[in-house]
UniProtKB/TrEMBL annotation:
Role: Ferredoxins are iron-sulfur proteins that transfer electrons in a wide variety of metabolic reactions.
Domain 4Fe-4S ferredoxin-type: residue ranges: 7-35
Name of the protein: Ferredoxin
Any one Pfam family match given in the protein's UniProt record, by short name: Fer4_13
Keywords from the UniProt entry: Electron transport, Iron, Iron-sulfur, Metal-binding, Transport
One Gene Ontology term of the molecular function aspect: electron transfer activity
Domain of life (superkingdom): Bacteria
Gene3D superfamilies to which the protein is assigned, alphabetical: 3.30.70.20
Taxonomic classification: Bacteria, Pseudomonadati, Pseudomonadota, Alphaproteobacteria, Hyphomicrobiales
Amino acid sequence: MKNGCRVRISIDYDKCVGSRICTAVAPNVFTLNEDSQAAVIDAEGDTLETIKMAAEACPVSAITIGEKAE
């Protein structure tokens, strides 16, 4: 990750509506999958702050951020 932290990103596909906000905020981390739902392309593709902003911007709170176990 760009700030040296390791992060675990979880997406609740029962909640995700494919708003694309996460892809706009953190395009190096998120994309849309074949079902037009959020998908992680690189969990270390941006700073933790940016990833958290993307998760917080999700209108249905489908993205959860946590620390990755070593």
